[in-house]
Specification:
It holds the Pfam family HTH_1. InterPro entries: LysR_HTH_N, LysR_subst-bd, WH-like_DNA-bd_sf, WH_DNA-bd_sf. Keywords: DNA-binding, Transcription, Transcription regulation. By secondary structure, the protein is of the alpha/beta class. The chain folds into 2 domains: about 80 residues, Winged helix-like DNA-binding domain superfamily/Winged helix DNA-binding domain (Arc Repressor Mutant, subunit A, Orthogonal Bundle), CATH 1.10.10; about 240 residues, D-Maltodextrin-Binding Protein, domain 2 (3-Layer(aba) Sandwich). A hairpin with a 2-residue loop joins strand 1 and strand 2. Helix 1 crosses helix 2, helix 1 packs across helix 4 and helix 5 packs across helix 10.
Length: about 325
Amino acid sequence: MDLEVRHLRVVCAIAEAGSLTRAAVSLHMTQPGLSAQLRRIEVMLGGTIFERGQAGVVPTPFGELVLTRARAILPGIDDLLADTARATRPRGAPDRIRLGSVGAPLLADLVLAVRGVLPAAEVSTRCQYSPSPLLDDLAAGRLEAAVVGDNPGHELPPHGGVVLRPLVTEPVFALLPATHPLAAEEEVSLNQLLEDDWAMPHPDSDRTREYWATVFALMDRQPHAPYEAEGRQLIEIVRAGLAVSLCQATFIEVPGIAVRPLAGTPVWYRHVLAWHRDGPLAARGDDIVRRVGEGYLATCARTPVYARWRERHPRSAQLSDPGQLMSGEATAW
């Protein structure tokens, strides 16, 4: 077996995830299949790349050498693929648009917006927990647009050629079991929530956990977080009364779950739309942002807890200036 680019991507994905199980999910593989492939790569390269342990995997000194070279090689390959894809792309309206999204409420609005400006195009979607692979795919021409996001002081890093368009900065709310005593309140204190056990997302390259830790540190406290989960699993842990957590303001309450604003609004999240400056959607960016913004406002109106919060805070969580662009640089919140 000869070394291929996909093998380098596998090694980098394992290092980023910190475990074979999480890497298998991100690579859409089974964990045994990924383990077998890693063993073949290690045999081919002649050394052990990762030490396996109960807490995950850690690169060996040999693995650090492999990762350093892989991380130096892959951006150049991605640039080559992106440049050749753009050079061979047919002129005129594209017939296929690939969209990506993190766990945000804007993906359906983005699909509808693209269909509105390009009604003849076939639209497909895929999701990631972290914005980093989506930005990589945008830069490499594997996606045409994506919904991403970041937190104050932890802005998205630069990605070559990717335009980042902030849409709105909204508060982050508390996620509680419906039976929790604080669920009877109109808003809850983050300090009170820190008395409970927490369910937290996996530390990832979107730096959400890092941002939350910064907010907690300002209070001279850190939560006891015995549960690490995301998506449906996190919701079920909260629903069972085992823990509390945080959620996006547009999260719609479901049976067994209560969503409440945090007093003083100490935690924020920014929704961002992204596309390549030379991609097929670049000329239609303003129209797409406008349509997605209208969809976001409609979602706010359908979310009772957030709608009431917006009525009490009419100057907060407004759509960003249509002319506000980022190229990965930090911008004011």
